[in-house]
Each structure stands twice: as C-alpha cells, then as structure tokens.
Amino acid sequence: MTEQSTPKGDIAEVTVAVLGGTGDQGRGLARRFALAGHTVHLGSRSAERAERAAGDLVEGESVPIDVRGLDNAGAAAAGDIVIVAVPWEGHRELLEGLAEPLSGKIVVDCVNPLGFDKRGPFALDVAEGSAAEQAAEVLPDSRVTAAFHHVSAVVLLDPEVDEVDLDVLVLGEDRAATDAVRALADRIPGVRGVFGGRLRNAHQVEALTANIIAVNRRYKTHAGIRITGL
After folding, report:
1. Residues near 210 by beta carbon (within 8 Å), at least 6 away in sequence
2. Of 11, 60, 98, 193, which sits with the fewest C-beta atoms within 10 Å of its C-beta?
3. Structural domains in the chain?
4. Can you spell out the DSSP letters for the chain?
5. CB contact at 8 A, 206 and 112
6. What is the C-alpha to C-alpha distance for residues 103 and 5, in angstroms, rounded to an integer?
7. Alpha carbon distance 207, 222 (integer Å)
8. pLDDT digits (tens, 9 = 90+) for 10-68
9. How far apart are CA 209 and CA 25, in angstroms?
C-alpha cells in the first residue's frame, strides 16, 4: 500500500469509478457522486452496456453531470477511488482480473454476500470472513475499505429525494483511506461517513443488510441506519 495513492487536496476533485456500475446500486451511487460534481466512470463487463447506462443517467438529469461508460478494466484504471458494486457471485473473479489496474488505489467494497429463501434474506458464510476481507486478500497492493452497504438504490435513483437520510459505516486498515472514503460519503447531501472499525468487523456490517431488507419488506420503506451520540 502506498500513501502516494491517497487523493490530495479537495475531495471534490476526485474521480470515482464504480465497477458493476450498471446495476441499481452502482447506478445510484454513480448518480449521486456525479450530482456532487465528480467525474464518474461506470464499469461493466460490456463497455457498450456501460456507455448506455451512463448516457441514460446523463439524459435523466436536469443539470449537467459527467458520467462515462467503460469496461471494468478501463473504469478501474480511470478512477482515483474505485467502488466495487458487483454481485457477490462474481466478486473474487472480477477482482482477481483487476489486481494490476487497482494496485495502489483506494478500493471501496460495498458487496453484501446474501442469500434468499422463502424465509427471507440471510447472510452467507465467507471463507475470508467477509467480502471486504476477500477483496483485501485478492488485492494486497490496494488500499481496501468497506462502505456503502446499507444504501437504498431506490432512494439514490429517486429524483424526488434531494437528501439521503443515512450514515455510512466505513471500515479499513488505512486511516488516510478511510478518511478519504468518509469524506466522499459526505459529498452526498444528507449522508455522513462514520468510521466503523477495521476490516475484520466488516462481516457484521455486510450481514446487517439482511436485517435492513427484512425491515424494508415488513414496513414497505427504504430504511437506512443512523449512529447516535456523534
């Protein structure tokens, strides 16, 4: 890990890449960061699909935003901070193939390893402990953090929602990296980035998503979390 990859100066100048950026969560995060003034690169297995998704986001806003579509490798190379928002099933394989372009970069893993059955959502067992810890194992030369697990894609994509009522727990081993990701979270109106511990604590943060989904289904809402006393 290298301190040289820490974004310098104003976090507003940081370029954001979202791998898996054509999914709902990826598009929602991309939209909010673009509205905050960032250049955002959507990554997908298909560059054409990413370009279409980026074009749809740009055309859907009443104000100019800068969103561009690339394949995942191109997006990984282009971003100063790279958010991983891919399905759990393809998580390891994708990151193994992107170890070189992600080397030295802040990588934000927001993947939730969940299963679903007739009783509802549940957390899956992960050999490494969590998706974030798997990412750290696969990307030893990257500065892996975990964040944005509990954001509602519906809320992020809703043009009627100006402020997102949410605290984002940010976990990681590198203080400068977690500070940068907390500052990035703060760029979304209404959102507050909160340090949530080291990566070994990521499992329960990822697993909590199953509880939040259950809450949302029961109460027909799009709940998030807030940390009190700060």
Report:
1. 112, 114, 120, 121, 122, 123
2. 60
3. 3-219 (3.40.50.720)
4. --GGGSPPS-GGG--EEEETTTSHHHHHHHHHHHHTT-EEEEEESSHHHHHHHHHHHHHT-SS--EEEEEEHHHHHHH-SEEEE---GGGHHHHHHHTTTTTTTSEEEE----EEEETTEEEEPP-TTSSHHHHHHHH-TTSEEEE--TT--HHHHH-TT--S--EEEEEEES-HHHHHHHHHHHHTSTTEEEEEEE-GGGHHHHHHHHHHHHHHHHHHTS---------
5. yes
6. 9
7. 17
8. 899 999 999 999 999 999 999 999 999 999 999 999 999 999 999 999 999 999 999 99
9. 13
Determine the length of the chain.
230
**Which tokens go with 115?**
């299963």
* Phi, psi at 218, each rounded to 5°: -70, -45
Q: Is this model's pTM higher than 0.70 or not?
A: yes
Provide the residue type at 185 as one letter: A
Place of tokens 């009627």: 160
